[in-house]
Amino acid sequence: AAKDAGQGMFRFYEPGMNEHALARLNQENSLRLAIERDELVLHYQPRLDLWRQTIVGVEALVRWDHPHKGMVYPGNFIELAEETGMIEALGEWVLHAACKQMQSWQEHGLAPIKVSVNISPLQLQSGRITHIVSQALEKTGIAPECLELEITESSLMQNLEASMRTLMEFQEMGISLSIDDFGTGYSSLSQLKRLPIDTLKIDKSFVRDLTEDADDATIVSATIAMAHQLHLRVVAEGVVSFEQIRFLQRCQCDEIQGFLLCQPLTAQEVESFLRTSRLRGIECRWMQ
Ligand code: C2E
Ligand code: MG
Ligand code: MG
Ligand code: MG
């Protein structure tokens, strides 16, 4: 029966299925095929270091280049991938693709940057994740220092002890770790202090109204101060205005990511963005 079908198998229509289940099954099968047919692509969003005023990394963001629907964003398929267990295959593909791209950028002589890869809760708990990551590094010859893994605050808290062990392994491998969407989960200071992480990424929901909402401004500045006390770097996500940048600079935020600086780019666009921004000092435009 369909519900007994294991991973990697297709499930077929059974009489009695409702329309919703049928639609879901279709989606599920087409996502499975998408991975096999190489329809997934990565875009990369640059991260700007506010101190050095230079691009220090890019975040890999998966998209589904659908043959009929065009570009489909992760908000429309990551959850399904999680629920069906397909996230493991998808996540493995993303890790390999990101490392391979990094290798190619390095071959093209681009100044060294870091690539950040999002790791889903299920991947983190899978028990295979450290193996998959080290394979991606080995196969592409990428140094562990060039890779960062982003783990959401809520996924860490789902199983703190097990996550902790996995994070320690990553740390031993020399890989950087960041907490994504910080502020949306429920971690405490004492838990944070115990985690071998390097960076906090403040969720864009706090950054959005920073300049109008006094509460958000307090949350952001207090988070940055606290993170620095714990020797963590801070990235502000979703920066869209100069006013936000000025506020973040006053709070000594380390890095920004957001549409003001740049939308997620194709791999090729990243190359020209990096070359031209270095040549013309584009980054410094935001600093006035
Ligand atoms: P995230 O990891 O927090 O990634 C940042 C998201 O914010 C991206 O959306 C990015 O395009 C968007 N963003 C960047 N700057 C701005 C801005 O200034 N304003 C606004 N409104 N949005 C901005 P995207 O690419 O749609 O990804 C959404 C989420 O999907 C990601 O959130 C991440 O949780 C997940 N995701 C993306 N790629 C992967 C992946 O390869 N694996 C896994 N497990 N999850 C992924
Ligand atoms: Mg992320
Ligand atoms: Mg985020
Ligand atoms: Mg997110």
From TrEMBL:
Q: Which residues form the EAL domain?
A: 24-278
- Report the source organism: Noviherbaspirillum denitrificans
- The full protein's residues present here are 419 to 706 of 706
* Name of this chain's protein: Diguanylate cyclase
Question: Which lineage ranks, top first, belong to the organism behind this chain?
Answer: Bacteria, Pseudomonadati, Pseudomonadota, Betaproteobacteria, Burkholderiales
